[in-house]
Each structure stands twice: as structure tokens, then as C-alpha cells.
Amino acid sequence: MTLQALDLTEVLVGLPGWAAVPGDRPAIARALKFADFNAAFAFMTAVALLADKMDHHPEWSNVYNRVDILLTTHDAGGVTDNDIRMARFIDETAARLGGQ
Fold this sequence. Notes:
The protein has helices at residues 8-13, 37-54, 81-96, and strands at residues 19-21, 27-33, 59-63, 66-71. It is α+β, with helices and mostly antiparallel strands. It is globular and about 35 Å long. It has three helices and four strands. Helix 2 (37-54) packs antiparallel against helix 3 (81-96). A hairpin with a 2-residue loop joins strand 3 (59-63) and strand 4.
């Protein structure tokens, strides 16, 4: 299945909390903060399970209770439906685990 890069402006309408990352490889990004390291790690574990199942992995970093996430589809050269699906899951999981 070939993935098509989407217009970032349109993508962000449905994803509050996410921001456009322009450049050679357009992406969307979000920074989250949790109560502590355990909550941040639980969040990352839940997202990692979906990422593995989708074979679509975020670029992210974690420092104590902070998680910075960047989503893009390398093969398509931008943001695709896979990134939107991942972003929505990230939002739902963060809300459930107290991320803000």
C-alpha cells in the first residue's frame, strides 16, 4: 500500500496540541509532561506496542517525566494517515495516563 503525504494545515485541524514541523520532511510534533518517570514510561510502552503492530514508529525522546514526539512517514516524505492514527492514539493514551 502506498501512503500519500497530507497537507499539514488540514491534518492539524483535527489534532489540537500538535504542531507542524516544516522542512524537507514535514512532520507533526507534540511535547507531553507526566506526573513522574513511571507514568511517562507507561505511556511510551503503550505507544510502542501500537507502533510495533503498525510497523510505524515515532521519533521521540524521554527525560524524566517529559516525552517529546515527532511523527512523519519517511517513505511518503511527510505526514500520512498512519501518523494521524498514531497521533490520536497518543492523545488518548496520554489523557488516560495524566499526560498534558
